[in-house]
Amino acid sequence: MDTAHHVITDIRAYHADGKDNQQLQDIVQRLQRRLWQQGLMFENCVADTGYSSGENYAFLEERGLKSFIPPHGTYKGGPTDFIYNETADHYVCPQGKVIPFTKEFLDYRTKTKKKEYRARKHVCIDCPMRSGCLGKSAQEKKLSVTYYRAEYERNIARVQSKEGRYMKGKRQSTVEPVFGTLTQFMGLRKINTIGIGQANKVMHLSAIAYNIKKYLKFIEKRSKSGAGQLAFSDLLKSVVQNLFSVSSRHRKLTFQY
């Protein structure tokens, strides 16, 4: 979304059974390629909490992008009252005992990469907080923490910074009004089509109509002569002709980037 004039720069439909954070990488790759072709730099990725995940934070950093995506409320960065030693990669419990890193694993429930920290049995056997810390059956303290803890912490620091607060306001004032217009006035409240291809067609046509209306208002403000109005009418005619020529050549109208 263009922040200056709220012009839609990218739109695509995804299957409803997927989460938002599963689609972010595809969106970024597609948008970054398009902006590069237009000679524009993509530096910051601003999104809501639905797009948050450690995998996404790491992906954005690998591509040289700064993320401003608030983490889910479930992220704690580690157990309460335990201190993390980043250099040695271990936790220290409230009693001063070290809980070392043991392995990396894939959580079968969330399908996310995690790290396990486990204390030896003899470390916890005489601890005065044993019953409250381990419960009735456990013999040793075991912690499971996201593999992308460092990426989470860097992202949180950016979100909570002055720049992060500015980015949040920018997102709310840019994306939300456009989304409301598309759903309330441009027919995207409900898409009554079969198949992802047809849904994409509806979304792209709605975005085209929205952008043309934006361009009309822009031309009305900037046009000072009949030549400007003529140029716009020629452009609009060209856009319409291209749309009809594409639809006549292909029964299924597709948009590729």
Mean pLDDT: 82
Class from helix and strand fractions: alpha+beta
**Major sheet summary line:** 5 strands, antiparallel
- What is the C-alpha radius of gyration, as a whole number of Å? 25 Å
Count of DSSP-assigned helices: 8
Helix content: 40-55%
Q: Give the terminus-to-terminus CA distance.
A: 16 Å
Shape: elongated
Explain this structure:
Helix 2 crosses helix 5 (149-159) and helix 7 (196-222) runs antiparallel to helix 8. The protein is of the alpha+beta class and 257 residues long. 46% of the residues lie in helices and 12% in strands. Strand 1 (44-46), helix 2 (54-62) and strand 2 form a beta-alpha-beta unit.
Note the topology.
Layout lengths: L23 H14 L6 E3 L7 H9 L3 E3 L14 E3 L4 E3 L5 E9 L6 E6 L2 H4 L5 H5 L7 E5 L2 H11 L2 H24 L10 H27 L3 H24 L8
Parallel strand pairs: 1-2
Antiparallel strand pairs: 3-4, 4-5, 5-6, 6-7
Summarize the structure.
This protein is an alpha+beta fold. The protein has helices at residues 24-37, 54-62, 121-124, 130-134, 149-159, 162-185, 196-222, 226-249, and strands at residues 44-46, 66-68, 83-85, 90-92, 98-106, 113-118, 142-146. Helix content is 46%, strand content 12%.
